[in-house]
Amino acid sequence: MYVTAYLSKDIIPGKVNYSPQHLLKMVQEMKLTHIPMFSGLTFIGNIAEEDLIELSTLEQSEVKFYDYTESFFLSEDHTIFEAFQLMYMNHTNILPVITPDSKYIGCVTAQSLIEAMTNFPFISEIAVSMVVSTATKELSMSAITNIVEANNGKVFGLMIIDEVEDRTNVLVRFSSSNLLSIGETFERYGYQVIQKFYNDEKQELLQNRYAQLLKYMNT
Prior knowledge:
Alpha-Beta Plaits, CBS-domain, 219 residues, alpha+beta, 4-stranded antiparallel β-sheet
């Protein structure tokens, strides 16, 4: 999951000898929030679209790109998840990948990373999702996995989605033909099933009985 496996081949970096108008056109055509800038082969930082709009109003002799660059980038050993975090922190949808000796490798975009993640089995496989809550001090990913697998389920992944006070909520993605049993087993072992993104047999039975009761009352 290193970012070097997901480099976008369509991004052209900017050069300090380009005009702000030309750079702005590049950013808008590629639908980027920033563009990585270079002086020769040396990376000098990233310039945001709004700064290019401001620079476009100046005379070319007044343009000083160095005053507007922001120095954020990825290295070869960064992962997809670190890339998303850095994008969020810098409000950008593009990150250049730079080696320790400042060599430019390429760029990754939010779009290219999202496309890559959709191929992960956690997302791509046909599965059901369940959010279970447990005391944080008792959290065990292996225990959650064991409950699913003991009921003949196949786990595609688990993800901690939030922590509320002393409890942790975990999203479980799995496939199984025994969904009702899995939900009941979680509850039997002290987990709270917060959300179920499917209809189980118990829920359907209760809905049918409620519908029959309403029909009886209206006759």
